[in-house]
Specification:
24% helix; five-stranded antiparallel beta sheet; single chain; six-stranded antiparallel beta sheet; alpha+beta
C-alpha cells in the first residue's frame, strides 16, 4: 500500500527540493532560460486528485477499524476534520494534507543524471574548488547555463555543475515524478524515536534536526501495527505499554526508516515533505598537525577521506563488501581501511570492539561512529566538519550525513 501511494503521490514532487533558494541567490549573469510558467497550478490540481485517491485507499485499508479522525494542520495553525461526507466542501481534500507542505517554488528544475555523484564547484571550470556533491538523482534549481556550466542551488549548496550531467525541463519533471520521496524533518533540536508508537515505549534512538528521514509508513492502522508487533516484538516489549491507548492514538504517530532500521515518531514534532535528494556541502577535512611528526598520520587520514569520497552514491547491499557493486555499512568501512593497510573485523559490533574510544571533542577524520539501539548495528566514518560518510540503506546507498543525525553509541579510533 505504501509503495503504491508513493508512486501516485510522487507526481506532486517535481519541484520540491530547494527551500528558500530563489530568495537568496542572485543570478549574476543574464539567464538564458525561461521559468516554467503554470507548473505550480497544474501540480496543485494534480495533488488534490492524488490526495483524494490516497485517502480512499487508506480508508479501505482501515476497514472500519477506526472512526473519522482529526488531523492537526500545522501549516495553517488550525485543526480541520480529516474527512467529511459533504461533497460541496471542495477545500477539505487540500486542507487535509496541507501539513505535507507541498513546496513548489523553483524556476527551473535540474536533476543529477549520473551513476554516482556530480561535483559542485565554486566557479565554472574543471579546476575550480569542489564545494559540494550531488549524488545520483539529486535535485537543484537552475539559475543560468553559460558555456556548458549551470549555476545552481541545491539545499544549502550554491555553485556550478557541468550542465551536460543535468536532466532539465520536461525530462527533469518526468524523472522527479518517479524518484522523489516522502520524508520527515524534526522540529526540535533532538527527538526521541520509540520502539513502538507510544510514549510508554522504550526510546529506540534520538534523531537530529540536521537531517531528513525516510517515512516507512505515514498512516498507521491497528491491523498493520498488530502484524508489525507479531514479527518484530517480544511480549516483554509491551510490558509497560497501555496497548488500548496506543491503538486508539495511532493517528498521531508514524513509522520511519533510520538507515536500514524501523522506529516510530510522534507527528507533533515533525514536518512531512516530498523531496528529491539535495547536494551535500563538502569542506576541507579539518585535519591539522600539531607537530611535524604528525604529518604522515594526517596525510594518511586525508587520503583515506578522499578515497572514501570516490564511492559516494554507490549502492548499498546487505552483506556486501564491494565498494563499487554494493556494500553494507561495515563492509564499506572495512574496505576503506583495508586499502590503507589496516585489518578490521567484518561486522559493525566487532569493529566497535576493535577500536579505542575517543570523545566527541577529540574526534578527527577517519574515526568511526557507531550507532544502534541496545547494541551497535551501524557504523560510519567521520570525514570532518561534523560529517560522516556511510553505506546507509538500499535507497540512498553510500551517502554523507551529519555525524549526529542519530545519537552515536561510541566513537572509535583504529590503532595501527
Amino acid at each position: 500500500m505504501y509503495r503504491k501511494n508513493i508512486k501516485w503521490i510522487a507526481a506532486v514532487l517535481a519541484a520540491v527540493l530547494v527551500t528558500g533558494g530563489a530568495a537568496t541567490i542572485h543570478a549574476g549573469t543574464v539567464a538564458t532560460e525561461k521559468p516554467m510558467a503554470g507548473i505550480n497550478l497544474s501540480l496543485d490540481k494534480y495533488s488534490d486528485a492524488v490526495l483524494a485517491e490516497q485517502e480512499k485507499e487508506e480508508t479501505a485499508e482501515k476497514n472500519m477499524e477506526v472512526t473519522a479522525e482529526q488531523v492537526s494542520v500545522k501549516n495553517t495553525s488550525t485543526t480541520v476534520s480529516k474527512e467529511t461526507t459533504d461533497s460541496s466542501d471542495k477545500k477539505t481534500t487540500k486542507k487535509r494534507d496541507s501539513h505535507l507542505k507541498l513546496n513548489l517554488k523553483y524556476d527551473r528544475l535540474g536533476v543529477a543524471d549520473v551513476d554516482s555523484y556530480l561535483n559542485v564547484r565554486n566557479k565554472p571550470g574543471e579546476s575550480a574548488k569542489v564545494i559540494g556533491k550531488m549524488t545520483k538523482h539529486s535535485g537543484c534549481n537552475i539559475y543560468t547555463i553559460n558555456k556548458g556550466w549551470a549555476k545552481i542551488v541545491s539545499g544549502k549548496v550554491k555553485g556550478y555543475v557541468k550542465a551536460s550531467y543535468l536532466a532539465k525541463d520536461h525530462e527533469a519533471e518526468e524523472l522527479a515524478k518517479k524518484i522523489a520521496n516522502l520524508r520527515i524533518s524534526v522540529n526540535t533540536e533532538t527527538l526521541n524515536v520509540r520502539y513502538l508508537p507510544s510514549t510508554d515505549a522504550g526510546i529506540y534512538d534520538q534523531i537530529s534536526e540536521e537531517d531528513e528521514y525516510d517515512i516507512y509508513k505515514k498512516n498507521l492502522t491497528k491491523s498493520w501495527l498488530k502484524n508489525y508487533i507479531a514479527k518484530n516484538c517480544k511480549k516483554s516489549d509491551l510490558k509497560n505499554i497501555n496497548t488500548g491507548k496506543m491503538y486508539n492514538n495511532l493517528k498521531n504517530w508514524m513509522c520511519i526508516s533510520i538507515d536500514n532500521e524501523k522506529a516510530f515518531v510522534s507527528k507533533d514534532f515533525v514536518k512531512v515533505t516530498f523531496n528529491l535528494d539535495r547536494a551535500v556541502s563538502i569542506k576541507s577535512s579539518g585535519i591539522a598537525s600539531k607537530t611535524s611528526s604528525d604529518n604522515s598520520s594526517s596525510s594518511s587520514l586525508s587520503s583515506m577521506v578522499n578515497y572514501a569520497m570516490q564511492f559516494l552514491g554507490n549502492p548499498y547491499v546487505w552483506g556486501g563488501t564491494s565498494l563499487t557493486n554494493g556494500t553494507d555499512c561495515s563492509g564499506f568501512v572495512m574496505r576503506i581501511y583495508e586499502h590503507f593497510g589496516y585489518s578490521l573485523p567484518r561486522t559493525s559490533a566487532a569493529q566497535a570492539g576493535a577500536t579505542r574510544t575517543v570523545s566527541s571533542g577529540d574526534v578527527r577524520p577517519g574515526d568511526l561512529f557507531f550507532y544502534g539501539s541496545g547494541g551497535v548495528s551501524h557504523v560510519a566514518m567521520y570525514i570532518g566538519n561534523g560529517q560522516i560518510i556511510h553505506a546507509s540503506n538500499p535507497r540512498t546507498g553510500i551517502k554523507i550525513s551529519s555525524a549526529y543525525y542519530r545519537t552515536p553509541i561510541k566513537i572509535g579510533r583504529v590503532i595501527s
